[in-house]
Amino acid sequence: xxTYKFKPTGVCAHAITVTVDDDAVITxxxxxxxxxGNHSGIVALCIGQKASEVMSKLExxxxxxxxxxxxxxxxxxxxxxx
Length: 82
What we know:
Layout: E1 2-6, E2 15-20, E3 26-32, H1 36-46, H2 51-58, H3 70-81
Antiparallel strand pairs: 1-2, 2-3
């Protein structure tokens, strides 16, 4: 198991902690700050999925006028832990 705490930039969340097992399957995600309901949904969809699949789906998503989003920052966190 690997756990990594990531400091996102350009979003409301101020920390993302991800845990993946030895097969690169996401076992836990904690997003601190931002939209609790949206984050709970994102986390529920990610648990049990391969990190690479989640990265490819979330990478590049934007939030309003921002060039990034919490899902995009989660993809960056997963890339760092993989």
